Amino acid sequence: MDLNKVMLVGNLGRDPEVKYLPSGDAVCDFSIAVNRSYKDRQGETQKETAWVRITAFTKLAEFCSNFLKKGKAVYVEGRLRERSWETQQGEKRTVLEVVAERIQFAYPKSMEGGGEGAAPEAPRPAMASAQPAASGAPQGAGAPVEGAATEDDLPF
């Protein structure tokens, strides 16, 4: 049995970058900082940060482009993918990234520094999924969008 599932909560390190495939489908890339605290052998609290590259496609990419900004805390659900290419100098490069299947805001707006007294913002969606929800099914439980772009369509 194989399992390739990733669930992360982190903060965007930069604004999402959106590119469009020749088909017109959107591809969005961004990175999140995932923090971990632990106690070392001396009992001192240590913190470490891992930077994780995230890629989203089609409608989920559009959601990211429209609603995510540097510093925003997000929950990302997806799968790992290793991608390799060769540079113009002939060097082989490889990257391990998460292909997002579901993204949602990690904290209520009141916990993201807005708090009391903050100016109200326009309503925003709480989550987006790479797959449309089937009638009566939980979000993300629908079938893949027919004809939607996949990572195999990437020209880069």
SSE inventory with pairings:
Elements lengths: L5 E7 L4 E4 L5 E14 L5 E13 H10 L5 E14 L5 E14 L21 E3 L27
Parallel strand pairs: 4-6
Antiparallel strand pairs: 1-3, 1-5, 2-3, 3-4, 5-6, 6-7
Please characterize this protein's 3D structure.
This protein is mainly beta and 156 residues long. It has one domain (6-153): OB fold (Dihydrolipoamide Acetyltransferase, E2P). Helices cover 6% and strands 44% of the residues. It contains 1 helix and 7 strands; from the N terminus they run ββββαβββ. A 5-stranded mixed barrel has the order 1-3-4-6-5. A hairpin with a 5-residue loop joins β2 (17-20) and β3 (26-39). It is globular, with a radius of gyration of 18 Å.
Largest sheet: 5 strands, mixed, barrel
Radius of gyration: 18 Å
Mean pLDDT over the residues: 80
- The CATH architecture term is Beta Barrel
For the termini, the CA-CA separation is 31 Å
Dominant shape: globular
Sketch the topology as an H/E string, one letter per element: EEEEHEEE
Q: Uncertain spans, ≥5 residues at pLDDT below 50?
A: 113-125, 132-148
Identify the CATH class.
Mainly Beta
Compact description:
With 156 residues, this protein is mostly beta strands.
Features:
156 residues, 1 helix, OB fold (Dihydrolipoamide Acetyltransferase, E2P), single chain, mainly beta
